[in-house]
Write a structure and sequence with these properties.
The chain is mainly alpha-helical. It contains 12 helices and 2 strands. The protein folds into 3 domains: 77 residues, no CATH class; 30 residues; 194 residues, Cytochrome Bc1 Complex, Chain C. 73% of the residues lie in helices and 2% in strands. It has a two-stranded antiparallel ribbon with strand order 1-2. The model has no long low-confidence stretch (mean pLDDT 86). Bound molecules: protoporphyrin IX containing FE. Protoporphyrin IX containing FE binds next to α6, α8, α9 and α12.
Length: 318
């Protein structure tokens, strides 16, 4: 019964999709629906997929679905051998380096000094993970906004109001007023950014107050400092993108700061802001930093940061 209902819903969805595409040209209502509904539909499909996976997992059906897929791939690429070899290699390295203490290398503070762990510190150990979660949410909402945002900072006069505006600002207006779920997705992106800055900072405080920055985790502390810088740069570059009064004012302050660097002020301004005066180039530069340079570098460093935690183990509270 349940299966049939799921089947019916899927068919209806596919039907709407196909008929919408086929008759889009001659049916303005459907075209409008498709224009507004395509991306939410993609999001709903992804959400449906995730819920489906959770359902399969909870009912114990997941292995029965995944195993044939895995066998199909394994027959062609012998992946199982590679995964096994990688696992063997990982554990042999870890056990050679720290035979007595399982995976934690070297021993944590709690083990080394035989101190009692202070349980009420534990919730603070979530903060690094929460920072990463915020990053994932920001990536997903950012992709949605990227479909509509236009990085055009050249000022033009608005024909209706007679006030200066720009392609960037107009695209923000579109997101806030026309795009389905646009204002919600933008709000989630906005608050997600605040959340990430706060949780990264609190995570750093936790690491500091439990003394986890000490030997052997000095390098990971430095890596973390770079991640904090990247998080702040994410915030700054994103703040400028709407090219509204706030963004423009923040750009002015940043530009003045760059220009005041002794001896190489102009070069710094050129590099960071695309010139010594704010212009359309500034927005394009901030955009590319925000959606490509920082995500690529940031994501790589986050994975490295968490891989080091995996290798070295957590420093428990003491
Ligand atoms: C984008 C930012 C960051 C992400 C996603 C992140 C992620 C994580 C995660 C998931 C952990 C595992 C333990 C936990 O969750 O507390 C961790 C541990 C750690 N992080 Fe971060 N972190 C970030 C920023 C920072 C910053 C700003 C610092 C310090 C300047 C830092 C230094 C450390 C250190 C030293 C550890 C090891 C702590 C221990 O062994 O107890 N991280 N990080």
């Amino acid at each position: 019964m349940k299966k049939n209902i799921l089947y019916l819903i899927t068919v209806i969805f596919i039907g709407i999709f196909i008929s919408g595409n086929a008759s889009a040209a001659d049916a303005p209502l459907l075209e409008d629906l498709m224009e507004k509904g395509t991306f939410p539909m993609i999001f709903i499909s992804i959400l449906g997929g995730i819920i489906g996976l959770i359902y399969l997992y909870l009912t114990g059906l997941l292995p029965r679905v995944l195993l044939p897929i895995w066998i199909w791939i394994d027959e062609r690429f012998a992946l199982y051998r590679y995964v096994n070899a990688a696992k063997r290699e990982y554990y042999s390295v870890v056990f050679t380096l720290m035979p007595a203490s399982g995976r934690t290398m070297p021993r944590s503070h709690t083990e080394r000094y035989n101190v009692k762990a202070v349980w009420y510190w534990y919730p603070f150990y979530c903060l690094g993970g929460l920072s990463f979660l915020a990053f994932i949410v920001l990536t997903i909402t950012g992709i949605y906004l990227g479909f509509y945002y236009v990085p055009d900072g050249e000022f033009v006069v608005d024909e209706i109001t007679g006030k200066p505006t720009s392609g960037a600002y107009q695209s923000m207006e579109l997101i806030m007023t026309q795009v389905t779920f646009g204002y919600i997705i933008r709000a989630v992106h906005h608050w997600g950014a605040h959340f990430m800055v706060a949780s990264v900072f609190l995570h750093m405080m936790r690491v500091y107050f439990v003394g986890a920055y000490r030997n052997p985790r000095e390098l990971n502390w430095m890596l973390g400092s770079i991640l904090l810088l990247i998080t702040i740069m994410f915030g700054y570059t994103g703040y400028l993108l709407p090219w509204d009064e706030l963004g423009y004012a923040a750009g002015t302050i940043g530009l003045e700061m760059a220009m005041s660097v002794p001896a190489m002020g102009d070069i710094t301004a050129q590099l960071v802001f695309g010139g010594t005066v704010l212009s359309g180039d500034t927005v394009l530069r901030m955009y590319w930093l925000h959606v490509f340079v920082l995500p690529v570098i940031g994501f790589g460093l986050m994975i490295l940061h968490m891989a080091l935690v995996w290798i070295q183990g957590e420093a428990e509270p003491h």
